[in-house]
Amino acid sequence: MIDLYFAPTPNGWKAAIMLEETGLDYRPVLMQLSAGDQFAPEFLKISPNAKMPAIVDHAPEPAWGKEPVSVFESGAILLYLADKTGRFAPPQTDLRARKELMEWLFWQVGNQGPMGGQLSHFRNYAPEGDRDYGFKRYLGEYDRNLGVLESRLADRDYILGDYSIADMLAFPWAFIAKPLGASLDDFPRVADWRGRIKARPAVQRAIDLHKSEQNRGRHRADNNTILFNQSAASLKSGRTGDPG
Questions:
Q1: What is the pLDDT of residue 52?
Q2: Any idea where the GST N-terminal domain is (predicted)?
Q3: Which of 26, 88, 124, 162 is the most exposed place for a label (fewest CB within 10 A)?
């Protein structure tokens, strides 16, 4: 059994997609981010950055020993699960393919994901009077990353050729392009790639997981200081900002 600490956001979907694709037995632990579940001491032991998703694998592979294994950060989670199952990633013995996988995992968690997250903040959650500059800035960066992905897909259906954890990481932030105020009209290969992944039954199950709990703009920077605009004092107490 794997415990999945989860909320229905793009980052939460990443881990849920991989768990659904592999068929691993897992238990979703819904986190109420607007209420501060991510700052609970027991969760901080699993995810010291106070962000979900995170997992606890209660039946790790023998090489890990008998104790449960906790993993935080979506890229690390998907890589751990790929190695656990031997699926959706090149084998560790294929050094060139593995290097390519790492490049695209780091691209997603260091570029596409953070830029999409900031774009979402200024589109959906920032105070009305403070949105324009941030929205334009991060829309440009979001589109730049779509251009990187568009070029990559010029001669392949998926990021590495075959469907992999690289696609699972990148898909959620392309899936919500329209709610972010962006468009895939200038990125037809990305749009086709998005459609192929969205059609997968495992992906559909993952994005439907606790769907009714999506924020949808209810909790914003002007009405929820647990999610947004923490002070230096709250940082010292472990409250580290937008949690997903």
A1: 97
A2: 1-89
A3: 162
